[in-house]
Amino acid sequence: MPILSSFIDPASEVYQKNRLAMEKALAEVNAQLEVARGGGGERYVERHRARGKFLARERIELLLDPDSPFLELAPLAAWGTEYTVGASLVAGIGVVNGVECLVSANDPTVRGGSTNPFTMRKSGRLADIALENRLPSISLVESGGADLPTQSEIFIPGGRGFRDLTQRSAAGLPTISLVFGNSTAGGAYVPGMSDHIVMIEGRSKVFLGGPPLVKMATGEESDDESLGGAEMHARVSGLADYLATDELDAIRLGRAIVARLNWHKPGPGPTMPGDEPLFDSDELLGVASADLRVPFDPRHVLARVVDGSSFDEFKPLYGPSLVTGWASIHGYPIGVLANHRGVLFSEESNKATQFIQLANQVDVPLLFLQNTTGYMVGKEYEQRGIIKDGAKMINAVSNSRVPHLTVNIGASYGAGNYGMCGRAYNPRFLFAWPNARSAVMGPTQLAGVLSIVARQSAEARGLPFDEAADEAMRATVEAQIEAESLPLFLTARLYDDGIIDPRDTRTVLGLCLSVIDSNPVHGTRGYGVFRM
């Protein structure tokens, strides 16, 4: 396979400017990740520790195989909202007794681990990942149930979480709950609907209604242990399958359950040499342009991500604004679509359509590297058929059945976001670099469109046009769209699965491809009508 040629001068002014901008963006993301790791804050963390309990992240670390990776998902959910960064839930994919599992842990230092609207949104995304990628799931439970002041937003849609648990069980995907503390009200159904349940003596409390609610509802006097204590559920109700003596024993039992699952991955596995790239991944910090209006060659990224920096480019002379070709990452074959000069023309659209069909014929997953301003507009391009050509590309993406991975490494604007497999097109995983932006269009363009429409409206009505008001409107709109296109804003709303350090791109994609390998890879052999 041909070797990519990629030489970057780290001493150049352009590289240094790009790197400085990326490091600044990365620092902002890392600062928010530290906030997420802090849970509910020092006061609540210390109170939790004083009770002799491990923190959510410590429980996960103890559960996972030593020195194995953990791909955390949506760590910055709820950023910029009234809720705590992370949405009171720590989750990701890790290895337990050699088995890749979806692991989630309520963070009881954040409002008792209760569920708010962003927790629910994050849990829904995790359920999709477990089902699509055929993963056993382990819930480390300590939750007060619904965050009651937000019940109107979570009660009705929140039932999905229980449905998802039972559907995963029906699909043969094991669900395991380790209960570390209170699991009340709706939270009681998480262990209640799991295949395997571990409770801790003197610690676990699982009930639909605690003593105060029971008193109000029935007048009955009761206590925590008789209502929902671990020993009661192990000896009387039968809800608990295992009774642990402490948190470490519960984690030991959880690991033992996974060991007995007899779990096998039916995917094809890595079939190519997993050689390291020939170029330094640290240089990725200076590859992406500080100014998103300036395109950069995605081959520089590929040279630092794919195995051996080897890339067999498809149609290199046709539709040059889109780079397509074959490579592998950690031994897993992959087809790549990567934006080069930002704009998608008819040629790029047709090239992408054909390439996606080819990948489906040979059952190879696809990687989309987004950096696009969208499909080209203008009289010439409309007459040449940009709508129908773009529609063919979107049709191909929509109906492709091989797994898709997407990384936004620059811009992802307009329908280009759709054609390059944005969130609405259900990629198995979608990550963003800290410099990324995504919106219906760039801030300047959007504000300019609104200005033109307002000017035309004033002229049509014979009214004078207020230039000062227009200038203020444009500034306000540009600021709003810029804020709403930032990666922190987007990741907070689960529009991606996390913001990653560019230097970690190869590792993250390798972990994702390994997860995808939990299912056979079968491409589609049929599409809808392609408008010619």
Number of helices: 19
**Would you count the extended β strands for me?**
17
The poorly predicted ranges are none
Shape descriptor reads globular
N-to-C CA distance = 34 Å
The proportion of residues forming helix, as a percent range, comes to 40-55%
Binned strand content = 15-25%
Structural class assignment: alpha/beta
For the sheet with most strands, the description reads: 8 strands, mixed
Radius of gyration: 25 Å
pLDDT average, as an integer? 93
What does this protein structure show overall?
The chain has 532 residues and is α/β, with parallel strands linked by helices. 41% of the residues lie in helices and 18% in strands. The chain has 19 helices and 17 strands. The chain has helices at 13-37, 42-50, 56-63, 117-132, 151-170, 189-192, 211-218, 224-228, 230-237, 247-259, 299-302, 346-361, 379-384, 386-399, 414-419, 443-460, 467-484, 487-492, 505-516, and strands spanning 70-72, 89-96, 99-106, 137-143, 175-184, 196-200, 205-207, 242-244, 312-314, 322-329, 332-339, 343-344, 366-372, 374-375, 404-413, 429-432, 437-439. The strands form 3 sheets. Strands 1, 2, 3, 4, 5, 6, 7 and 8 form an 8-stranded mixed sheet that branches. Strands 9, 10, 11, 13, 15, 16 and 17 form a 7-stranded mixed sheet that branches. Helix 6 links the parallel strand 5 (175-184) and strand 6 (196-200). Helix 12 packs parallel to helix 14 (386-399) and helix 16 runs antiparallel to helix 17 (467-484). The chain is globular.
